[in-house]
Specification:
It is built from 14 helices and ten strands. By secondary structure, it is α/β, with parallel strands linked by helices. 37% of the residues are buried.
């Protein structure tokens, strides 16, 4: 006879399992099928080549601009400019920039005055870069990133036209040895996959600042960053497209400090995003955590009560392996189509770690809310 505790454990397992299957096979699978549709020639692209302003914000550290910028400045594109926004950068950066400006006439720079006080110097810097831009099509990336191909601008702009003023691209972390670096690579890829999946479901709410396009006109109409999250405010089903191809992926050398800072920023700004995507991904995160917990609880209960072992352990392992297959298939097939690192043996552990990390940053936000600049901004 099945006990009440067993019914409760199996019910939690079933609910969390079904929830996870919906997320994987109805949401996170979208980028994979989108790329298949492109390969089969079922997607229409804009044939024009609008002039482009590429904007890059650089702050407080040395970047190898001699290595990073030439690949960007030598893109196979008829008309574009690159605008560097300096925010207290090093002398090495300034000297390298001067040498490159002598070589490339389409490279420009501006800077944030050191005495300027602003709750977010990065947003101010990007705003200054946008004001300096000559063209309506604005393409954003960052100094810790690099292109994979000289067709990057061409691939991103093939979606940009009169009615499509926001284009979201994929950003991925460079693979490097070590357990935690590989986890950061997985976590960063999964986060970008979530963003693009929602856009493909016609619910865009965010984008990677390392790879996105928006219209200057749109930026000015919405008064820029006045409501904190620009893409969240302007992106809609009618004006947003997604670019997914191996050559359009922007690679980043995101380090531990920057990864942690991005996780904190996302936790603090979460309530500014559109309600539906936030609710959905919160549900995904918590259902994942309780799914793993319920699998473990069912196994422990089965081994403590041997008469229940066959159906408790069978249900737990059946659900777990089905989800693991779904996760491995969708994550790795999508990564393979983008020619990115695959995750096979590490997925079970990374999956658990990511659930724990997300809960940690949720708790961190609750504890440290009053220390965050957004809270201070709201209270001014």
């Amino acid at each position: 006879m099945v006990s009440l505790i067993e019914i409760i454990l199996l019910s939690i397992l079933a609910i969390c399992f079904i929830t996870q299957m919906v997320f994987y096979w109805a949401v996170l699978i979208k980028p994979y099928y989108y790329m298949k549709s492109i390969e089969e020639g079922n997607t229409r692209f804009f044939s024009g080549l609008p002039p482009v302003s590429v904007i890059i914000y650089i702050k407080n550290r040395f970047y190898d601009l001699q290595d990073f910028l030439p690949a960007l400045l030598e893109q196979d594109y008829p008309q574009f400019e690159v605008i560097i926004v300096n925010d207290g950068t090093t002398e090495e950066n300034k000297n390298a920039l001067k040498r490159l400006q002598e070589q490339y006439p389409n490279l420009y720079s501006t800077h944030i005055p050191e005495e300027t006080r602003n709750v977010s110097r990065k947003k101010l810097g990007i705003t200054l870069g946008i004001k300096a831009a000559k063209y309506d099509c604005l393409l954003f990336t960052e100094a810790d990133s690099h292109t994979r191909s000289n067709n990057w601008i061409k691939l991103m702009t093939r979606h940009f036209e009169k009615d499509k003023t926001v284009v979201l691209g994929m950003s991925a972390r460079e693979s490097e040895p070590g357990f935690f670096p590989k986890f950061m690579t997985f976590d960063y890829f999964y986060s970008n996959l979530q963003i693009l999946s929602m856009a493909l479901l016609n619910h865009p709410y965010a984008g990677s600042g390392r790879n996105l396009i928006c219209s200057k006109k749109h930026f000015n109409e919405h008064k820029g960053f006045i409501r904190h999250l620009f893409i969240n405010d302007i992106a809609a089903e009618s004006n947003t497209e997604v670019e997914l191809s191996p050559e359009s992926v922007i690679m980043t050398g995101l380090n531990v400090y920057d990864w942690e800072q991005e996780k904190k920023d996302k936790a603090f700004t979460n309530h500014f995003y559109k309600a539906r995507p936030v609710a959905l991904w919160s549900l995904e995160s918590f259902s994942r955590f309780f799914f793993i917990l319920s699998v473990f609880a069912c196994l422990v209960w089965g081994f403590l009560h041997l008469q229940a072992l066959p159906y408790m352990a069978g249900a737990a392992m059946g659900c777990y392996l089905t989800r693991l297959f779904s996760q491995s298939f969708i994550v790795n097939r999508t990564a393979s189509r983008l020619e990115l690192e695959n995750f096979y043996l590490t997925i079970p552990l990374f999956d658990l770690m990511q659930a724990m990390v997300n809960i940690y940053f949720f708790i961190y936000r609750v504890i440290h809310k009053k220390e965050n600049y957004i809270f201070k901004y709201e209270k001014r």
